Amino acid sequence: xxxxxxxxxxxxxxxxxxxxxxxxxxxxxxxxxxxxxxxxxxxxxxxxxxxxxxxxxxxxxxxxxxxxxxxxxxxxxxxxxxxxxxxxxxxxxxxxxxxxxxxxxxxxxxxxxxxxxxxxxxxxxxxxxxxxxxxxxxxxxxxxxxxxxxxxxxxxxxxxxxxxxxxxxxxxxxxxxxxxxxxxxxxxxxxxxxxxxxxxxxxxxxxxxxxxxxxxxxxxxxxxxxxxxxxxxxxxxxxxxxxxxxxxxxxxxxxxxxxxxxxxxxxxxxxxxxxxxxxxxxxxxxx
Length: 287
Fold this sequence. Notes:
Number of helices: 12
Structural class: mainly alpha
CATH topology: Growth Hormone, Chain: A
Radius of gyration: 20 Å
Largest sheet: none
């Protein structure tokens, strides 16, 4: 699977500098990687969940019906599912700095465009484009974990990265709701777009593709990890590693379990606020 020339990985540079200088660069680059993975992926969520706090205002204005909102929401999820599969493979072969930044930039543009009235079909198409762009964030983050952290560290930093979900949801359900309540749904989309643009700039400025692109040893060499013969074979090429993942039954079991979790999770995320507003009388911000 090939990537566009723009997304090709940053070239590896010869390893230079003393061990102390390398340690300083590693520490700074890893701190930046964690900051980007948590903060920027959290801002991905702001652009993904923005519609969820605007459904009642959109219906009340006569712009869209509940049924149309259901179709529109499905467009994002189907595009996200396809994109997550494809981009998971592509991110392994890409410059993750560009991958992360471009995905959020496109998502921000889609949110900004949705602040203007348009036919429901075009709205759904743009929301689907947003869904595909959204699917670029998680792969760029997970590949970053693999490139910058050793096997024994990844579980810890994966847990730290997962806080980005809660950060993004909090920003959406508080700040975006506040904007919608104060200025209307059009400004809600504009606010989400602004958050996304800030995140894209942060990713472009601070994320680093790999240690080797900085003239540093790979994480395996730096941490002194010893790979088993099976692991060494998987590391020979990106394709070999991906094949090993696809033929691992445990991965498929985890994927199935995650799918069931996401059914209930996104049912609440997508319609919980609308339900509380329509059936329980809550204001947008309260819901």
